[in-house]
Design the sequence.
């Protein structure tokens, strides 16, 4: 007997990744009704509800399809007035969730007077430029007069979670807020035209996930199809075999950063070339800021360290890009004595660092990456990106920036000048 064949949809990615969803984060005091509101929006129990203060400990994120707005994700957080030995840790995690918020939803009980912590939160939300809405919970009970006066000057909706009173109005307001957000650029935005031919170079090595492609490769391929382009997807070992067979010159060759050197050697020197990581540096962060950060490589400050930030968690390979390849190249080309640190998030104290090298950020939201870049700018710490660092290390700058005219000119005039050969 033959084994049962899987259904056509089995194993396919049928949901939008969390990193590509608009993130709506619920904040408020303990027992403000945040978890109850989450359940009312989802119309099922997705968060634990209890009269016991401090029921929500860690942020809980759930994907949701908001009709009229598309894929979003709601994050429920611990109360900002949490107490006890773990209270400060929970509050800190709730504050970190704010860095990922595209929209902040402050849940405040209509039955209790305003709290100074709520005012402080709204001040922080406004300072960060995050669109927000206030959900006045327990609307089915007698309101506190001071809270009503406080709400008068704020964008708010009254809700009663058990009966779902006001929930439809709330979600409608959220749809309008989502629509007001600047859309995140797609990987190929402004780089290709209908009918263009692309070459995507995708190494299949020990670090590649079994049976699938990594997210930047999938998103770039889908973007090419959405733009009515054709794409040849090939491993780096076969590029030299297939490239001469192409009917005409590709608009762009896009490679995994780790194959930069080999790919550049196998295509004509005037063929436009970049990497998935550089595409995502623009999509998720600020490509110009990453380019400026490369200047630290030619004048690295004495006594400083390098921090490599990788947003996702995965099983480390013997030749891991973050912990092995990048430090090795840096030590060969810049300074063999500079120590390296590795983290998923930025530490509180950034003073030890002369440079941060950040991943493409494909598994986190654009707002989360930009919040990190803003923190680094405030601390005066330069930052660059995996793909840009590897292109620099292999002497492929400014070539890998040619598809991006502004950043290309920026590199040539402010950072690195012309082509350099390193490795």
Sequence:
């Amino acid at each position: 007997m033959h084994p049962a064949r899987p259904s056509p949809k089995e194993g396919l990615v049928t949901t939008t990744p969390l990193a590509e969803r608009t993130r709506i984060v619920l904040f408020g005091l303990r027992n403000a009704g945040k978890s109850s509101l989450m359940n009312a929006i989802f119309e099922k129990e997705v968060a634990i509800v209890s009269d016991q203060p401090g029921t929500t400990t860690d942020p809980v994120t759930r994907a949701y399809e908001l009709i009229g707005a598309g894929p979003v994700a709601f994050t429920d957080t611990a109360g900002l007035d949490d107490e006890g030995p773990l209270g400060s840790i929970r509050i800190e995690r709730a504050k970190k969730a704010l860095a990922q918020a595209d929209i902040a939803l402050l849940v405040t009980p209509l039955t209790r007077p305003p709290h100074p912590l709520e005012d402080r939160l709204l001040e922080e939300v406004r300072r960060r430029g995050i669109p927000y809405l206030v959900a006045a919970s327990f609307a089915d009970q007698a309101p506190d007069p001071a809270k009503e006066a406080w709400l008068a000057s704020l964008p708010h909706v009254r809700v009663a979670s058990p009966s779902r009173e006001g929930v439809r109005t709330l979600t409608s307001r959220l749809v309008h807020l989502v629509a007001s957000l600047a859309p995140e650029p797609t990987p190929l935005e402004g780089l290709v035209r209908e009918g263009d031919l692309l070459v995507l170079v995708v190494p299949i090595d020990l670090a590649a996930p079994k049976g699938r492609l990594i997210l930047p490769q999938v998103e770039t391929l889908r973007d090419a199809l959405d733009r009515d382009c054709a794409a040849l997807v090939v491993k780096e070992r076969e590029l030299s075999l297939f490239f001469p067979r192409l009917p005409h010159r590709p608009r762009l060759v896009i490679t995994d950063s780790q194959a930069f050197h080999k790919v550049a050697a196998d295509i004509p020197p005037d063929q436009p070339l970049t990497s998935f990581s550089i595409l995502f540096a623009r999509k998720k962060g600020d490509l110009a800021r990453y380019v400026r950060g490369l200047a630290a490589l030619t004048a690295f400050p004495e006594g400083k360290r390098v921090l490599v930030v990788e947003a996702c968690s995965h099983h480390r390979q013997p030749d891991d890009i973050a912990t092995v390849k990048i430090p090795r190249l840096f030590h060969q080309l810049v300074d063999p004595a500079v120590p390296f640190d590795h983290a998923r998030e930025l530490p509180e104290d950034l003073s030890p660092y002369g440079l941060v090298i950040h991943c493409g950020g494909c598994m986190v939201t654009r707002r989360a990456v930009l919040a990190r870049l803003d923190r680094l700018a405030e601390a005066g710490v330069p930052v660059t990106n995996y793909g840009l660092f590897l292109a620099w290390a292999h002497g492929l700058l400014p070539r890998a920036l040619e598809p991006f005219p502004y950043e290309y000119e920026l590199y040539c005039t402010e950072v690195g000048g012309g082509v350099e050969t390193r490795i």
Summary: Residues 1-14 have pLDDT under 50 and may be disordered. The CA atoms of residues 388 and 408 lie 12 Å apart. DSSP finds 14 helices and 14 strands in the chain. The domain at 197-277 is CATH 3.40.50.11420 (Rossmann fold).
